[in-house]
Amino acid sequence: MNRKHTISALALAAAFGASGAFAEQLNVVCSNEQAWCDLMTQNFKIDTGIDVAMVRKSTGEVLAQIRAEAGNPKVDVWWGGTGDPHLIAAAEGLTQATTADVGGQLGWSLNMTEMSGGRAVGVLVGLLGIIYNTEVLAAKGLTVPACWSDLARPEYRGEVQVSNPNSSGTAYTELATLVQLFGEDEGFKLLAAIGANVNQYTKSGSAPGKAAARGETTIGIGFMHDMVKLKKDGFPVAIVAPCEGTGYEVGAVSVIAGTPNLAAATRWVEYVLSAEAQSRGLEVGVYNIPRTPPRLPILTPPTWQGSS
Question: What 3-state class would DSSP assign to 123?
Fold first, then answer.
């Protein structure tokens, strides 16, 4: 290369650097609620200077995508969604062990890390439950559902909505919950009986709760932290923790195998595990149980005065 070409190359590099054309960027697929996906994208950019291209998809959709893109990944990190598909991705070598600092984990998060060989890290816990629209239930003269088995009652024909386990980790958690509570044979019988009352299987796990809040269905199945947000937003809903007990999700974060942006992906993992970042979820109505709860101030006991 002659001197003229060298100067031109240096000038071109300087121009790209000044315009930020080579700025670090991270591609994240998010299986949390859209508002939380957007908030974390915004905050991560502010705190790290790294641009994030974010797309929101259900867990089943993400698993199908990263399988199709194996060896030539289009995303760097998978954040959120139930842990089972993350474990499947880990077992299939679609994700890689993180080098992020994941110390100080709670037991359920540590289990996820160990089970996946460090390829998936637990971020949050969410409990499965039932939601119903109090006004619609009363108008139709229906009894209040208190148990999973109640959802099989003939009176609820066409009144129940749940997501599709082919696309939704929420529905897969429901399936696993009933099988573990009632045994495989009885669990699948109950699923079939409840299925006879289902008016729609949605793609997203949070959709049935939202439909119940709007009065589009009487009863929905989903995670209770999503239902808490609907209740706090003023919708006429009630939340039920089923009498037989319930299952839970461990939401996870995974780094996609072969990512060309490993350093940025590692920073994302450490960021979403931090107490500061997780506590920000409250701003958009995220009420699940975080892996790293915010530290509470240490209160000094009061000094009591008076005669002995």
Answer: strand
